[in-house]
Write a structure and sequence with these properties.
Largest sheet: 7 strands, mixed
CATH topology: Aminopeptidase
CATH architecture: 3-Layer(aba) Sandwich
CATH superfamily: Gcn5-related N-acetyltransferase (GNAT)
Shape: globular
Strand content: 25-35%
Structural class: alpha+beta
Number of helices: 5
Radius of gyration: 14 Å
Helix content: 25-40%
Distance between the termini: 28 Å
Number of strands: 7
Length: 149
């Protein structure tokens, strides 16, 4: 994990590029409903939440976002590590950063959806980190974690 750092996103073009690369993963298409609307106004879409970019050195290689659902619940979205940077533990670092910020923002629950058939390694990580599976429909799994303050 040489020189990996997670930072608040202060350049939306960087996160748009990462989100767009993520959207092109074969099998993940259904995760990107209303994607154009999301990209067009990231600040509004993620208001009350956060956008993070993970850097290896100066290169943006990872992202994750927090979307406010209500005062108690947020949704983790868009966890993505560029393929050539996977296997270095960056996903866990990104998730832990997101969970810490969600607590700081006062949320008591984090939810998200994933497609285990497309994101098998991520799905296993979520379970190991304590996310519980709520439901499954058409290959998409809803998960949640209660946050301890």
């Amino acid at each position: 994990m040489n020189g990996f750092a997670v930072k608040d996103c202060n350049d939306t073009s960087v996160i748009k590029s990462l989100f767009t690369e993520y959207s092109q993963i074969k099998g993940a298409e259904s995760c990107f409903v209303s994607f154009d609307k999301e990209l067009a106004d990231l600040e509004s879409f993620y208001r009350g939440g956060a956008l993070f970019v993970g850097y290896e050195g100066e290169l943006p290689v990872a992202c994750i976002a927090i979307k406010k659902i209500n005062d108690h619940t947020c949704e983790a979205k868009r966890l993505f590590i560029k393929p050539e940077y996977r296997g270095k533990g960056y996903a866990r670092i990104m998730l832990n950063t997101m969970l810490s910020r969600a607590r700081e923002l006062g949320f008591s629950e984090v939810t998200f959806t994933t497609k285990p058939s497309v994101m098998q390694i991520g799905y296993g990580l979520y379970k190991r980190m304590g996310f519980e599976e709520l439901s499954e429909k058409d290959g998409t799994v809803s998960m949640r974690m209660e946050l301890n303050k």
